[in-house]
């Protein structure tokens, strides 16, 4: 069961859309190694707006993910790829179907 989630909105710098998409795709193998990260989705909301949606069984798993390889890579590449800092929303899941 998942009780916690993250919604991360990312706005690509002009001309960096392809690099953002490559970055998001490259994160999948890292996330697959995280037992506490249950569903994980890299999504595109619009021409230059992207996001990550993921869910966790508890706060500890969510914190582990945020401090893990994907979170670190996101921080390291934020200035290069994004026009604004990543917008991270912490969510509580009320109901789910996985």
Q: How far apart, in Å, are the first and last alpha carbons?
A: 9 Å
User: What CATH architecture label applies?
Assistant: 2-Layer Sandwich
Helix content: 25-40%
CATH class identity:
Alpha Beta
Structural Rg: 13 Å
Q: What sort of overall outline do the alpha carbons produce when their principal axes are compared?
A: globular
Strand order of the largest sheet: 2-3-1-4
What are the secondary-structure elements, in order, as H or E? EHEEHHE
Main beta-sheet annotation: 4 strands, antiparallel
Sheet-strand content, in percent, reads 25-35%
- Class per helix and strand makeup: alpha+beta
How many separate domains? 1
Could you name the CATH topology?
Alpha-Beta Plaits
The overall pLDDT average reads 97
Tally of alpha and pi helices: 3
Number of strands: 4
Low-confidence stretches: none
Top keywords for this entry?
98 residues; alpha+beta; Alpha-Beta Plaits; four-stranded antiparallel β-sheet
How is the topology of this model organized?
Blueprint: E1 4-11, H1 17-32, E2 40-44, E3 49-56, H2 59-66, H3 69-81, E4 87-92
Antiparallel strand pairs: 1-3, 1-4, 2-3
Give your account of this protein's structure.
Helices cover 38% and strands 28% of the residues. It is of the alpha+beta class and 98 residues long. It has a single domain, classed as Alpha-Beta Plaits (2-Layer Sandwich), CATH 3.30.70. Strands 2-3-1-4 form a 4-stranded antiparallel sheet. A hairpin with a 4-residue loop joins β2 (40-44) and β3 (49-56). It starts with a strand and ends in a 6-residue tail after the last strand. The mean pLDDT is 97.
